[in-house]
């Protein structure tokens, strides 16, 4: 019996269980009410229905999920013990190739066999799959009936079906919210595990403080020494994300926020604010394409014209500029929030003393809002250094330690993509290095966020 | 004795200059603010205009009108028995080459697209009677001619276009293939349907996973969770997940979903799962805000007439918070739709020439398709990339517009 058919059958059984249990509960309710014992009925009929339906579905469903993982092993065992399996080749690789082909034919995914050996295994495979399929379906149905019958006998006027059903609802909610923890743990565990494997090949000191990055040479067999010094990557990331992008984003974002909150008329504000927010909604791949297609060549031509040596068409400046533009709405909304949080009395006081609006903003509002603005900038930096597509498309791959914004630098995220999109051998230092870079990126963004949120929170408390 | 201070003479020259200076500073500051806003808006406009300028041509194709004398062509087809099989056996690619040579000259075979024969096939299929007469058929031009006609071609292609223009056979038509075809190697023949379908499947998986889990988490944290260490950990995890760079989720998907669970590479299923982990915190945060904004009096009233805590939430609070939750969900989905980096990590950058049939088939998505095309050397891909970007931006705009509409229509101030 196939999977979908069993699921459909179970769903049907569940529906029948719901309807019949509900009908029974309704009869009991009417009977109880007719005899004048109104408070003898605890739950609404629907809850009895759900209770029985859940008892029908949940144990059978759990069993099927477990069975789906166990059955292939049992099938394999059966096939291997069949007489045809005695002629299988001894080495694991060709053995699993033959078995895989036989399975593909048996399940109808492949028409004919390339290997004559697998043809002989098709029949045992079909038998075993059929056998365990029927066994699994039968057991699931038995469980469904048993569960349903047990629950059905409990349908009485004084049975607290609602409490039971709600307990399950609460458990589901709790499990759903635990998923966030599991995801975090998954991230940390996978990064730590693969990084640990990397650091067993390359010393962490070389990785964190080395200045030469050339994983290709390591992959070519020149050894892992001196090939995984990530300092040029860290510098490139800071140069693009924390320096160039911020030089663009902080003045533009801050001044936009000030203009829109302090000077602009409500109509201008109503139209310009969403327009600026659109900058944050444009996908990063679009920014990357724009930077690579339009901005980078223009900047290179400009650099050549003013005579700068070593201008590259994959310059740090192009990637940083476009990234800065992407961050503008982020900085501006954080600045907006923190300026709005400054008490009106401070502003009024300053204006009453005769200060102009700009003097009030520069001498009163911004100093008062500074912690919030700084927190926002830190969040923006963490955003910028984790940004991938813009730098993948517009920044280069050359790991340079340079201060020249027209030269090509590479970043952590660019290298992660570069290392993982080629060949995928999972035991080479080259691919594992990506996870070590990911770990560094994760830790740095996490720290930036924690510090930023703490700063913002402290500052909010100061005015409450 | 303290020295008496003379009152400030506001009319003195010194004071006037000072005030003038302060007012000038005020004007400069205001102007700087205005400039910042305008500069940011100008950048957005520049980006959109560049994409439009490059991309709109991607929706059109150059066609060459070729006079086909069917009876004299080497085509062996019975007009009364036109079947797919007969058309497949008729060696249409060769016939197309011959008729083009005959109509436009010996070197003209290169000018039409390698798939031009499908236009001939469709014409015959639409009206088998044309086999007995001479008929003008519009054939798609090759990439070189297409580029030259749009003003970006090589010199020899330009010369060919000049000749064709003199003959008056060039025209521009809507490139339906761009919306119905999939990835390919020849820029005139590529389309976004495959990537679009991949995006659709991926988004379905993302929505199916992240919406229930996100809403359940929001409900639990906002309505039921007691303040204890576990709740704190959940909250901290969610806030951190919302700020983790998207590429880290790609690393997670690669090492857990692919290397540990052995799910199929480059499938929409894995892409959707990875993006769901990213989208879930967004939905949780939006959901909590929406639930928080439902006034406590609603809960108190429901509890007061005997509803259980679960009934209060599912019968009263959630329906009232739903518009807010949906707005947050749509915004989260829009972000997931534009996401590229994590999908590159799990191998969705493969060359996929056929649209995926299901969620476990190898697929690609629109942003990744854009990334792949942007890497192509052929000049013809520039307009295709920009055209795909236009399609993506239209979808994002529509989703965000829907979110704003929902918010304005259903948002209630209590």
From TrEMBL, chain A:
Checking InterPro entries in the record gives:
MetI-like (IPR000515), MetI-like_sf (IPR035906), Phosphate_PstC (IPR011864), PstC_N (IPR022182)
Q: Does the keyword Amino-acid biosynthesis apply?
A: no
Indicate the principal place this protein occupies in or around the cell: membrane
Localization (cell): Cell inner membrane; Cell membrane
The molecular function GO annotations come to:
phosphate transmembrane transporter activity
Q: Which GO terms describe its cellular component?
A: plasma membrane
Keyword annotations from UniProtKB, A to Z: Cell inner membrane, Cell membrane, Membrane, Phosphate transport, Transmembrane, Transmembrane helix, Transport
Transmembrane ranges? 49-70, 132-153, 173-193, 233-260, 280-303, 315-335, 364-382, 432-456
Q: How does it sit in the membrane?
A: Multi-pass membrane protein
According to its UniProt entry, the protein's GO biological process terms are: phosphate ion transport
Q: Is Aminoacyl-tRNA synthetase one of the keywords UniProt gives this record?
A: no
Instruction: Output the NCBIfam families linked to this UniProt entry.
Output: phosphate_pstC
What is the recorded name of this protein?
Phosphate transport system permease protein
TrEMBL record, chain B:
Q: Which GO terms describe its biological process?
A: phosphate ion transmembrane transport
One of the entry's Gene Ontology molecular-function terms is: phosphate transmembrane transporter activity
Main location per UniProt?
Answer: membrane
UniProt-listed Gene3D superfamilies: MetI-like
Query: Which cell locations does it reside in?
Result: Cell inner membrane; Cell membrane
Q: Which GO terms describe its cellular component?
A: plasma membrane
Q: Which InterPro entries match?
A: DUF3333 (IPR024573), MetI-like (IPR000515), MetI-like_sf (IPR035906), Phosphate_PstA (IPR005672)
- According to the record, the segments passing through the membrane are 200-221, 241-261, 267-286, 320-338, 385-406
Q: What is the recorded membrane topology of this protein? A: Multi-pass membrane protein
Output the superkingdom of the source species: Bacteria
Residues forming the ABC transmembrane type-1 domain are 196-403
Q: Does the record carry Transport as a key word?
A: yes
Keyword terms, alphabetized:
Cell membrane, Membrane, Transmembrane, Transmembrane helix, Transport
Tell whether Transport is among the UniProt keywords.
yes
Q: Which SUPFAM superfamilies match?
A: MetI-like (SSF161098)
Task: Give the protein family.
Answer: Belongs to the binding-protein-dependent transport system permease family. CysTW subfamily.
- Xref: PANTHER family: PHOSPHATE TRANSPORT SYSTEM PERMEASE PROTEIN PSTA, PHOSPHATE TRANSPORT SYSTEM PERMEASE PROTEIN PSTA-RELATED
Stored NCBIfam families = 3a0107s02c (TIGR00974)
Please state what the protein is called: Phosphate transport system permease protein PstA
Protein species of origin: Sphingobium chungbukense
Phylogenetic classification of the source organism = Bacteria, Pseudomonadati, Pseudomonadota, Alphaproteobacteria, Sphingomonadales
